[in-house]
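RECORD TYPE: inverse folding
INPUT: structure tokens
STRUCTURE:
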């Protein structure tokens, strides 16, 4: 048999064997597993970190729900981002970063430093015009959050104790609404998480001890010891790209 015929026979044999062999079976990638996360509207800056983690964890299908803190359901969400101390009924709370409430005023207002006593009088309504404590002659407009807000509770407890906010106080439903209200009101005073602070308003220096009181942790709450994908998401938020994104808005844990 000549070399040319041998090569032809070998080629035909190879093609016949290939045709008779079973076709390769395609490997179907596993479906992403759903992970539900909930946080209150005041924690909107944390969304960037969650999306950053989801992009690095293709095995996770992330579902984000924004719910006021008072309506958080610890039984139907895999993870809840929470500002403040760990609720008593939660067994697992993982610290992520910290955030603090800051007092904001209109940029025209020269009162860039306020004592705790002055803050008490302003938010309680005893001081009705800024001229009572400074040379700035403007009626005081107190802006607060709704009574069921964690921000309102934390700030009111620290500034007023058992007293109440001014009965003439205006309500801002969210930090964004608070920023807009104070920025557009020459006599306005309010408070927002530092993560929301913008150049549209000015912030007032306050007593360092009070500042510490208004500084609280951002926690990741879960119902049971995290495993698998949930554990991977928590690792990302604590040490990975999620932590980097969180630090774009928040302060590191002390």
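DESIGNED SEQUENCE:
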């Amino acid at each position: 048999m000549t070399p040319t015929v041998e090569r032809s026979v070998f080629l035909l044999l190879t093609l016949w064997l290939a045709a008779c062999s079973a076709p390769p079976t395609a490997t179907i990638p596993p479906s992403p597993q759903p992970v539900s996360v909930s946080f209150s509207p005041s924690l909107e800056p944390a969304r960037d970190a969650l999306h950053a983690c989801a992009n690095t964890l293709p095995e996770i299908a992330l579902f984000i729900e924004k719910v006021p803190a008072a309506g958080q359901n610890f039984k139907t969400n895999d993870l809840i981002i929470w500002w403040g101390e760990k609720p008593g009924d939660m067994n697992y709370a993982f610290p992520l970063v910290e955030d603090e409430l800051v007092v904001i005023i209109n940029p025209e207002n020269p009162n860039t430093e306020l004592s705790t006593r002055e803050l008490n009088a302003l938010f309680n309504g005893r001081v009705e015009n800024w001229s009572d404590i400074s040379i700035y002659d403007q009626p005081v407009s107190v802006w607060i959050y709704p009574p069921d807000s964690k921000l309102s509770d934390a700030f009111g407890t620290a500034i007023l104790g058992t007293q109440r906010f001014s009965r003439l106080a205006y309500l801002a439903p969210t930090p964004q609404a608070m920023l807009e209200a104070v920025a557009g009101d020459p006599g306005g005073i309010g408070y927002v998480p530092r993560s929301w602070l913008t150049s549209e308003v000015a912030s007032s220096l306050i007593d360092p001890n009070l500042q510490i009181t208004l500084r609280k942790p951002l926690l990741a709450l879960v119902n049971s010891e995290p495993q698998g994908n949930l554990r991977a998401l928590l690792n990302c938020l604590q040490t990975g790209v999620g932590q980097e994104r969180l630090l774009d808005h928040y302060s590191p844990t002390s």
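NOTES: Strands lie at 33-39, 60-66, 79-83, 92-105, 141-144, 170-171, 188-193, 202-203, 215-222.
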